[in-house]
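Give me structure tokens for this 413-residue protein.
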Amino acid sequence: MARFLFTMMPANDLGLPTRLVPIARVLADRGHEVAVFNPAPAPAKLIEDAGLKNLPMPARPMPDFPMDLAQVSLAWDVEEMFAAAFGDERSASEATAAHVDLVRDFAPDVVIDSFGLFSCLAARILKVPLVSVLQGNFHPSSDGFLWWKGARPAKLPSAAPAINKVAAEYGLAPVARTVDLIAGDLSLIVGTPETDPLPGSANVVYVGPILWQRGNATLPDWVAGLSREKPVIWVYSGNPRYAGVATPIDSIVVIRAAVAALADAPVQVVLTTGYQEVPAELGSLPANFHHAAYLPGRAMAERSDLLVHHGGHGSSMMGLAAGTPAVIIPTITERESNARRVVALGAGEIVVPIDGADGEKQIDVAEFGAKVQRVLTEPSYRASARRISEAIGKFGGAKEAADRIEQFANGKP
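Here you go.
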């Protein structure tokens, strides 16, 4: 049996853990020693619910990065996003040291990572084999988040200067792009060539969407009891507020739009927030809204007539896997990338928010309401979503990913 360590960018969102936890659960059930590392509150609850070991914070403290969240939200690609988040050399040095401690202390045979720059760097420093589990637009060979705008502009910011100085302290050669560090010795893509297109030269393995839901998970009685006479719209915002004040990456705009457009509509709205609280500033929810911090995603998507969400890759894949169309309000360019893929597949519509004078994202409520009505009533959207669902079903998901990782750990191609 092998020792596997699952790592990721430790953001307080469920997108990354929901793609790693199912693989970790399969490997643990096969008798391997498995640990996960994400100390953020919402991911920690998901990891606990899966019955997996979540490693504690290393004794060495994790740094706070001086992030430019506006640049994060507008980034052309991963390289510019990392520049906005991890361009500070001192913080990068401290984060690298903490992750080196983490990996060295657990001593895994393989690190399985999703978008964790410093865990990938630590694996390379310690010469631990690395498997990456990525969405298509995170891979170095992708056309970036703004793929529909053409070629990447020259001279966009990069964190490579800072990261290379840190890497040199450990004897690693410099890299031209930091994004190259997060592609593993084996790269698994949690999508299909249709949903996450990459060039044939990318050297990746498509395993299909990986979405967490316990095998015995069921929807609560109040969801099962919703009327079949009115459409059910599942609104998922992700983290509405990342801090005590407004930030450019907040998804509260999704809830506000839903309340403004759907409060008096003949629909039933189920709002989930991924183990996050609904911000008190929103006040009481309308009578046709029902809130739960978390619900089994695949089951809820299949019960729904429409999904409204923030454009996260997991949310986008959840709808496609269930054959349920979506109206998407993407809150950063990475999410807009995912949303535009859904639209290009004919399985939904997009409403792009703008930054208001107060720094809050805003949308045209009339446009949003019209697109909700269009997707609910025009059969082509559901037909497209169901076609993609059938194509997705040909991929093995978490089981195939676990098979590939076991083969990799055993030295087999």
